[in-house]
Amino acid sequence: MSDDQEYVHGGPERLPGRERKHFPGISSRAYEHPADRSALVALRKLSGFDTVFKALSGLLPERSLRLLFLSDSVRVGELQFPRLHAMLLDACAVLDLPKVPQMYVTQDPRPNAMCVGLDEPIIVVTTGLVELLDEEEMRAAVGHEVGHALSGHAVYRTILLFLTELALKVAWIPLGGVAVTAIVTALREWFRKSELSADRAGLLAGQDPRASMRGLMKVAGGNHLHEMNVDAFLAQAEEYERGGDLRDSVLKIMNVLPRSHPFTTVRAAELKKWSESRDYQRIMDGHYARREDDKDASVSDSFRESANHYAESVRASKDPLMGLVRDIAGGASDLGGKLFGRGPGSSGSGPRSGGPKGGQERDDTPDR
What we know:
Elements: E1 5-8, E2 11-14, H1 34-45, H2 49-59, H3 62-72, E3 74-75, H4 82-94, E4 102-106, E5 113-116, E6 122-126, H5 127-132, H6 135-151, H7 153-169, H8 178-206, H9 209-221, H10 230-242, H11 246-256, H12 264-275, H13 278-284, H14 299-316, H15 320-329, H16 335-339
Parallel strand pairs: 4-6
Antiparallel strand pairs: 1-2, 3-4, 5-6
Protein backbone atom coordinates (compact mmCIF):
# COMPACT_ATOMS: atom_id res chain seq x y z
CA MET A 1 0.00 0.00 0.00
CA SER A 2 1.47 3.38 -1.03
CA ASP A 3 2.11 6.23 1.40
CA ASP A 4 -0.89 8.21 0.21
CA GLN A 5 -3.40 5.44 0.84
CA GLU A 6 -4.97 3.94 3.90
CA TYR A 7 -7.73 1.43 4.50
CA VAL A 8 -11.01 2.83 5.71
CA HIS A 9 -13.65 0.26 6.68
CA GLY A 10 -11.70 -2.35 4.72
CA GLY A 11 -11.39 -0.39 1.44
CA PRO A 12 -8.47 1.58 -0.02
CA GLU A 13 -8.84 5.33 -0.16
CA ARG A 14 -6.53 8.00 -1.53
CA LEU A 15 -5.72 10.74 0.96
CA PRO A 16 -4.42 14.25 0.25
CA GLY A 17 -0.96 13.45 1.61
CA ARG A 18 -2.02 13.76 5.25
CA GLU A 19 -3.98 12.05 7.99
CA ARG A 20 -7.36 13.51 8.85
CA LYS A 21 -8.30 13.80 12.49
CA HIS A 22 -11.32 11.89 13.78
CA PHE A 23 -13.79 13.21 16.34
CA PRO A 24 -15.18 10.31 18.42
CA GLY A 25 -18.60 11.03 19.89
CA ILE A 26 -18.78 14.56 18.48
CA SER A 27 -22.11 16.30 18.95
CA SER A 28 -23.62 18.44 16.23
CA ARG A 29 -23.59 21.19 18.87
CA ALA A 30 -19.86 21.44 18.28
CA TYR A 31 -20.23 22.80 14.76
CA GLU A 32 -23.79 24.11 14.58
CA HIS A 33 -24.04 27.72 13.51
CA PRO A 34 -25.81 29.75 16.25
CA ALA A 35 -28.27 31.05 13.66
CA ASP A 36 -29.18 27.46 12.75
CA ARG A 37 -29.97 26.62 16.35
CA SER A 38 -32.02 29.76 17.01
CA ALA A 39 -33.93 29.47 13.72
CA LEU A 40 -34.88 25.88 14.52
CA VAL A 41 -36.09 26.89 17.98
CA ALA A 42 -38.15 29.70 16.41
CA LEU A 43 -39.54 27.24 13.86
CA ARG A 44 -40.69 24.87 16.58
CA LYS A 45 -42.47 27.77 18.31
CA LEU A 46 -44.36 28.68 15.13
CA SER A 47 -48.09 28.34 15.67
CA GLY A 48 -49.34 25.08 14.23
CA PHE A 49 -45.92 23.64 13.48
CA ASP A 50 -46.07 20.83 16.06
CA THR A 51 -49.49 19.77 14.79
CA VAL A 52 -48.33 19.73 11.18
CA PHE A 53 -45.10 17.94 12.07
CA LYS A 54 -46.86 15.16 13.98
CA ALA A 55 -49.41 14.69 11.22
CA LEU A 56 -46.86 14.64 8.42
CA SER A 57 -44.52 12.25 10.23
CA GLY A 58 -47.07 9.51 9.67
CA LEU A 59 -48.19 10.60 6.21
CA LEU A 60 -44.98 11.32 4.34
CA PRO A 61 -44.28 8.65 1.73
CA GLU A 62 -40.78 7.78 2.95
CA ARG A 63 -40.98 4.23 1.63
CA SER A 64 -41.99 5.63 -1.75
CA LEU A 65 -39.05 8.01 -1.63
CA ARG A 66 -36.62 5.17 -1.00
CA LEU A 67 -38.15 3.05 -3.75
CA LEU A 68 -37.92 5.99 -6.15
CA PHE A 69 -34.16 6.39 -5.68
CA LEU A 70 -33.62 2.64 -5.64
CA SER A 71 -35.41 2.27 -8.96
CA ASP A 72 -34.24 5.36 -10.83
CA SER A 73 -30.79 6.32 -9.47
CA VAL A 74 -27.44 4.59 -8.91
CA ARG A 75 -26.75 3.41 -5.36
CA VAL A 76 -23.22 4.17 -4.23
CA GLY A 77 -21.25 1.18 -2.99
CA GLU A 78 -18.09 -0.85 -3.49
CA LEU A 79 -19.08 -1.72 -7.07
CA GLN A 80 -20.75 1.57 -8.07
CA PHE A 81 -19.02 4.92 -7.58
CA PRO A 82 -16.47 3.28 -5.25
CA ARG A 83 -14.55 6.54 -4.73
CA LEU A 84 -17.71 8.26 -3.51
CA HIS A 85 -18.38 5.24 -1.32
CA ALA A 86 -14.92 5.55 0.25
CA MET A 87 -15.49 9.26 0.87
CA LEU A 88 -18.83 8.50 2.53
CA LEU A 89 -17.28 5.89 4.80
CA ASP A 90 -14.46 8.24 5.67
CA ALA A 91 -16.76 11.18 6.46
CA CYS A 92 -18.89 8.96 8.69
CA ALA A 93 -15.75 7.73 10.45
CA VAL A 94 -14.36 11.24 10.94
CA LEU A 95 -17.66 12.60 12.32
CA ASP A 96 -18.44 9.30 14.09
CA LEU A 97 -21.89 8.92 12.53
CA PRO A 98 -23.12 5.62 14.03
CA LYS A 99 -24.89 4.32 10.90
CA VAL A 100 -23.67 4.98 7.35
CA PRO A 101 -26.59 6.39 5.27
CA GLN A 102 -27.43 5.00 1.85
CA MET A 103 -26.16 7.26 -0.90
CA TYR A 104 -27.43 7.64 -4.48
CA VAL A 105 -26.25 9.44 -7.60
CA THR A 106 -29.11 10.79 -9.70
CA GLN A 107 -28.99 12.12 -13.24
CA ASP A 108 -29.31 15.91 -13.09
CA PRO A 109 -26.95 18.43 -14.73
CA ARG A 110 -27.49 20.93 -11.90
CA PRO A 111 -24.88 20.57 -9.14
CA ASN A 112 -26.78 19.70 -6.00
CA ALA A 113 -26.99 17.30 -3.06
CA MET A 114 -29.50 16.64 -0.32
CA CYS A 115 -30.06 14.55 2.78
CA VAL A 116 -33.67 13.45 3.26
CA GLY A 117 -35.64 10.85 5.19
CA LEU A 118 -37.50 10.50 8.47
CA ASP A 119 -36.35 7.26 10.08
CA GLU A 120 -33.09 6.75 8.16
CA PRO A 121 -31.43 9.55 6.18
CA ILE A 122 -30.66 9.12 2.48
CA ILE A 123 -27.95 11.16 0.77
CA VAL A 124 -28.53 12.05 -2.88
CA VAL A 125 -25.96 13.78 -5.10
CA THR A 126 -26.49 14.83 -8.70
CA THR A 127 -24.28 13.93 -11.64
CA GLY A 128 -23.74 17.67 -12.10
CA LEU A 129 -22.06 17.89 -8.70
CA VAL A 130 -19.99 14.72 -9.21
CA GLU A 131 -18.69 16.02 -12.53
CA LEU A 132 -18.02 19.53 -11.22
CA LEU A 133 -15.95 18.90 -8.10
CA ASP A 134 -12.49 17.43 -7.70
CA GLU A 135 -11.74 14.82 -5.03
CA GLU A 136 -11.11 17.16 -2.09
CA GLU A 137 -14.02 19.43 -2.99
CA MET A 138 -16.28 16.39 -3.23
CA ARG A 139 -15.02 15.13 0.11
CA ALA A 140 -16.23 18.38 1.70
CA ALA A 141 -19.59 18.07 -0.10
CA VAL A 142 -20.09 14.51 1.17
CA GLY A 143 -19.10 15.62 4.68
CA HIS A 144 -21.63 18.43 4.36
CA GLU A 145 -24.44 15.90 3.80
CA VAL A 146 -23.16 13.64 6.60
CA GLY A 147 -23.30 16.73 8.84
CA HIS A 148 -26.98 17.15 7.92
CA ALA A 149 -27.57 13.52 8.90
CA LEU A 150 -25.73 13.88 12.22
CA SER A 151 -27.64 17.07 13.06
CA GLY A 152 -31.02 15.47 12.34
CA HIS A 153 -31.74 17.97 9.55
CA ALA A 154 -33.05 15.29 7.16
CA VAL A 155 -36.44 15.16 8.89
CA TYR A 156 -37.15 18.85 8.46
CA ARG A 157 -35.72 18.89 4.94
CA THR A 158 -38.14 16.11 3.96
CA ILE A 159 -41.08 18.03 5.43
CA LEU A 160 -39.96 21.18 3.57
CA LEU A 161 -39.93 19.30 0.26
CA PHE A 162 -43.40 17.89 0.92
CA LEU A 163 -44.91 21.20 2.06
CA THR A 164 -43.41 23.11 -0.86
CA GLU A 165 -45.18 20.70 -3.20
CA LEU A 166 -48.36 20.96 -1.12
CA ALA A 167 -48.29 24.77 -1.18
CA LEU A 168 -48.42 24.67 -4.97
CA LYS A 169 -51.39 22.31 -4.96
CA VAL A 170 -53.52 24.33 -2.52
CA ALA A 171 -52.59 27.77 -3.84
CA TRP A 172 -55.92 28.00 -5.73
CA ILE A 173 -57.96 27.46 -2.56
CA PRO A 174 -58.91 30.79 -0.89
CA LEU A 175 -56.79 31.06 2.27
CA GLY A 176 -55.97 27.38 1.89
CA GLY A 177 -52.27 27.96 1.43
CA VAL A 178 -51.77 30.70 4.03
CA ALA A 179 -50.82 28.43 6.93
CA VAL A 180 -48.75 26.14 4.69
CA THR A 181 -46.93 29.14 3.18
CA ALA A 182 -46.10 30.49 6.64
CA ILE A 183 -44.56 27.18 7.69
CA VAL A 184 -42.70 26.80 4.36
CA THR A 185 -41.25 30.31 4.79
CA ALA A 186 -40.11 29.49 8.33
CA LEU A 187 -38.67 26.16 7.19
CA ARG A 188 -36.74 27.86 4.41
CA GLU A 189 -35.31 30.40 6.85
CA TRP A 190 -34.16 27.57 9.12
CA PHE A 191 -32.81 25.51 6.21
CA ARG A 192 -30.69 28.40 4.93
CA LYS A 193 -29.11 28.61 8.37
CA SER A 194 -28.68 24.82 8.58
CA GLU A 195 -26.55 24.99 5.43
CA LEU A 196 -24.00 27.07 7.34
CA SER A 197 -23.79 24.32 9.98
CA ALA A 198 -23.41 21.61 7.33
CA ASP A 199 -20.67 23.62 5.61
CA ARG A 200 -18.76 23.47 8.89
CA ALA A 201 -19.30 19.72 9.11
CA GLY A 202 -17.96 19.40 5.56
CA LEU A 203 -14.82 21.28 6.59
CA LEU A 204 -14.34 18.99 9.59
CA ALA A 205 -14.72 15.97 7.30
CA GLY A 206 -12.31 17.21 4.63
CA GLN A 207 -10.07 19.42 6.79
CA ASP A 208 -9.02 21.47 3.76
CA PRO A 209 -10.48 25.01 4.00
CA ARG A 210 -9.38 26.02 0.51
CA ALA A 211 -11.03 22.96 -1.02
CA SER A 212 -14.30 23.74 0.81
CA MET A 213 -14.34 27.33 -0.42
CA ARG A 214 -13.19 26.30 -3.89
CA GLY A 215 -16.12 23.91 -4.12
CA LEU A 216 -18.57 26.69 -3.26
CA MET A 217 -16.95 28.93 -5.86
CA LYS A 218 -17.34 26.24 -8.54
CA VAL A 219 -20.99 25.74 -7.63
CA ALA A 220 -21.42 29.47 -8.30
CA GLY A 221 -19.26 29.78 -11.42
CA GLY A 222 -18.76 26.36 -12.96
CA ASN A 223 -15.71 24.25 -13.71
CA HIS A 224 -13.50 26.97 -15.18
CA LEU A 225 -11.16 26.91 -12.20
CA HIS A 226 -8.28 28.42 -14.18
CA GLU A 227 -10.48 31.47 -14.76
CA MET A 228 -11.43 31.96 -11.09
CA ASN A 229 -9.71 32.88 -7.83
CA VAL A 230 -10.87 32.01 -4.31
CA ASP A 231 -9.58 35.26 -2.77
CA ALA A 232 -11.36 37.35 -5.40
CA PHE A 233 -14.51 35.29 -4.82
CA LEU A 234 -14.33 36.02 -1.09
CA ALA A 235 -13.85 39.71 -1.89
CA GLN A 236 -17.21 39.58 -3.66
CA ALA A 237 -18.85 38.59 -0.36
CA GLU A 238 -17.35 41.60 1.40
CA GLU A 239 -18.47 43.91 -1.41
CA TYR A 240 -21.96 42.37 -1.30
CA GLU A 241 -22.25 42.99 2.44
CA ARG A 242 -21.02 46.58 2.56
CA GLY A 243 -22.31 47.86 -0.80
CA GLY A 244 -25.29 50.07 -1.56
CA ASP A 245 -27.77 51.84 0.71
CA LEU A 246 -30.85 50.80 2.65
CA ARG A 247 -32.78 50.07 -0.54
CA ASP A 248 -30.11 47.54 -1.48
CA SER A 249 -30.35 45.99 1.98
CA VAL A 250 -34.09 45.44 1.46
CA LEU A 251 -33.45 43.96 -1.99
CA LYS A 252 -30.94 41.53 -0.46
CA ILE A 253 -33.62 40.28 1.92
CA MET A 254 -36.18 39.95 -0.88
CA ASN A 255 -33.71 38.10 -3.10
CA VAL A 256 -32.87 35.49 -0.48
CA LEU A 257 -36.40 34.75 0.80
CA PRO A 258 -37.41 32.29 -1.97
CA ARG A 259 -34.07 30.46 -1.83
CA SER A 260 -33.39 27.22 0.01
CA HIS A 261 -29.65 27.98 0.33
CA PRO A 262 -27.73 31.11 1.31
CA PHE A 263 -25.80 32.84 -1.45
CA THR A 264 -22.55 31.02 -2.21
CA THR A 265 -20.26 34.01 -1.59
CA VAL A 266 -21.86 34.48 1.83
CA ARG A 267 -21.40 30.78 2.64
CA ALA A 268 -17.74 30.90 1.62
CA ALA A 269 -17.10 34.01 3.74
CA GLU A 270 -18.86 32.47 6.76
CA LEU A 271 -16.84 29.28 6.40
CA LYS A 272 -13.55 31.16 6.08
CA LYS A 273 -14.34 33.13 9.22
CA TRP A 274 -15.11 29.94 11.14
CA SER A 275 -12.02 28.12 9.83
CA GLU A 276 -9.88 30.89 11.32
CA SER A 277 -11.75 30.95 14.64
CA ARG A 278 -10.78 29.62 18.04
CA ASP A 279 -13.86 27.36 18.01
CA TYR A 280 -12.60 25.49 14.94
CA GLN A 281 -9.11 25.17 16.35
CA ARG A 282 -10.43 23.79 19.64
CA ILE A 283 -12.34 21.08 17.77
CA MET A 284 -9.23 20.21 15.77
CA ASP A 285 -7.34 19.96 19.07
CA GLY A 286 -9.92 17.48 20.39
CA HIS A 287 -11.93 19.82 22.62
CA TYR A 288 -15.55 19.70 21.50
CA ALA A 289 -19.11 19.02 22.70
CA ARG A 290 -19.95 15.31 22.78
CA ARG A 291 -23.20 13.49 22.14
CA GLU A 292 -23.14 11.82 25.53
CA ASP A 293 -23.63 15.28 27.08
CA ASP A 294 -26.47 16.39 24.77
CA LYS A 295 -29.11 15.46 27.35
CA ASP A 296 -27.53 17.90 29.80
CA ALA A 297 -27.18 20.76 27.31
CA SER A 298 -28.79 23.98 28.48
CA VAL A 299 -31.49 25.49 26.27
CA SER A 300 -30.93 28.90 27.87
CA ASP A 301 -27.23 28.68 27.01
CA SER A 302 -28.16 27.98 23.38
CA PHE A 303 -30.43 31.03 23.34
CA ARG A 304 -27.72 33.14 24.94
CA GLU A 305 -25.16 31.97 22.41
CA SER A 306 -27.51 32.73 19.53
CA ALA A 307 -28.31 36.17 20.94
CA ASN A 308 -24.63 36.93 21.37
CA HIS A 309 -23.97 35.81 17.80
CA TYR A 310 -26.66 38.10 16.38
CA ALA A 311 -25.48 41.02 18.51
CA GLU A 312 -21.92 40.53 17.32
CA SER A 313 -23.12 40.17 13.72
CA VAL A 314 -24.91 43.52 13.95
CA ARG A 315 -21.84 45.16 15.50
CA ALA A 316 -19.46 43.79 12.88
CA SER A 317 -21.72 44.03 9.82
CA LYS A 318 -20.97 46.59 7.12
CA ASP A 319 -24.48 46.35 5.68
CA PRO A 320 -26.27 49.75 5.64
CA LEU A 321 -29.37 48.32 7.32
CA MET A 322 -27.32 46.87 10.16
CA GLY A 323 -25.58 50.22 10.47
CA LEU A 324 -28.99 51.86 10.91
CA VAL A 325 -29.89 49.29 13.57
CA ARG A 326 -26.68 50.15 15.46
CA ASP A 327 -27.43 53.86 15.20
CA ILE A 328 -31.00 53.42 16.43
CA ALA A 329 -29.73 51.35 19.35
CA GLY A 330 -27.17 54.06 20.08
CA GLY A 331 -29.69 56.90 19.85
CA ALA A 332 -28.89 58.26 16.39
CA SER A 333 -30.60 61.57 15.62
CA ASP A 334 -30.45 61.91 11.85
CA LEU A 335 -32.57 58.93 10.80
CA GLY A 336 -33.85 60.80 7.76
CA GLY A 337 -30.32 61.28 6.52
CA LYS A 338 -29.62 57.61 7.05
CA LEU A 339 -32.73 56.54 5.17
CA PHE A 340 -31.79 58.58 2.09
CA GLY A 341 -28.04 58.05 2.27
CA ARG A 342 -27.26 61.67 3.30
CA GLY A 343 -24.70 62.49 5.91
CA PRO A 344 -25.10 65.24 8.55
CA GLY A 345 -23.48 67.79 6.24
CA SER A 346 -25.55 66.96 3.16
CA SER A 347 -28.03 69.46 1.71
CA GLY A 348 -31.18 69.14 -0.38
CA SER A 349 -34.43 67.36 0.17
CA GLY A 350 -34.63 65.01 -2.82
CA PRO A 351 -32.97 61.68 -3.47
CA ARG A 352 -29.18 61.43 -3.61
CA SER A 353 -27.51 63.27 -6.43
CA GLY A 354 -26.90 61.19 -9.49
CA GLY A 355 -30.33 59.49 -9.29
CA PRO A 356 -32.85 59.33 -12.12
CA LYS A 357 -34.36 62.63 -13.26
CA GLY A 358 -37.65 63.78 -11.87
CA GLY A 359 -37.02 62.36 -8.40
CA GLN A 360 -38.23 58.90 -9.40
CA GLU A 361 -36.39 55.95 -7.99
CA ARG A 362 -35.15 53.31 -10.38
CA ASP A 363 -36.54 49.80 -9.93
CA ASP A 364 -33.45 47.74 -9.06
CA THR A 365 -35.36 44.50 -8.58
CA PRO A 366 -33.85 41.85 -10.86
CA ASP A 367 -36.04 39.89 -13.22
CA ARG A 368 -36.97 36.48 -11.91
